[in-house]
Amino acid sequence: MRVLSPSPVPSRHRLLGLLGLLALLSTGTPAVAAEGWSVTPLGTGRPYFYAEGTPKMVLQDTLSVRNPTKRTLAVRLTGSSWITLAAPEVEVPARTRADVPFTVRVPEGTPPGDRTATITARASGRTATVRVRLRVGGPRLAALTVEHVAVRGDRIAYELVNRGTIALTPTLAVRADGVLGPLLDRAPRTLPVRLPPGRRLALTEPWPGRPGFDAVDVRLTVTAADGTVRDEASTSVRFVPWGAVAGVAGALTAGGALVVVRRLGRRRRGKQPRAQQELVARTDGLTGAMT
Predict the structure, then answer these.
(1) What are the structural domains of the chain?
(2) Closest-CA residue to 78 (of 137, 32, 124, 130)
């Protein structure tokens, strides 16, 4: 592929000017010859397109559509998101080929690494594809964070975020300490995930046999890139057996109510004799007055 410039992609009219759709006598054997027509990189000996570039760079190459049949062939062309074709459809006369330029624009902010795209051609009920392999250059930075640690039931939930420019395979270590000492201490182990640059992944870690009544500090430690990248995050949680607490509270409430009822009963029984004595005294007074 040729490097054009880091400038914007050329306009459609300029690309059409480059198109040339030359009706050339087909020479050589097409790379794909099933049912007659084929699509290949321009030239010989290339099974796919390959290019290297950096963000904001624009690369150019040419696709050949060969038609060795005896009739004109209408071919529709589509490309992956980074690819702009000079024309979405070409007509290739019999026993000729059409050369179609295209550009590949590397988006700004694309992290370094290998990418694969495709150009697809459709004609006469058949589909053919050509791969475009692109290596994006730039600084390689490894950066990983662990966030949003929380205990949910018998699992520890957390999120991993790749804040660098290269894919990472993280390792995880888990530790939990209660009031009386360590409850969980898992050595670092490699997680069965590959985290691309810029991606966030929500995961959970099982915790069978977690305590039912305790105050616990949970700490997660993640590493990657042979231990050169490291991050920690922690959370605190209180485990309380609310069912048992509710039962005890209910029993205490019932016991308190019983004590109150008993005290009221005693007070009433203590007041009744004094009332009867006052009634007898009043009766005696009335009797003396009458005599």
Answers:
(1) 2-136 (2.60.40.10), 144-239 (2.60.40.10)
(2) 130
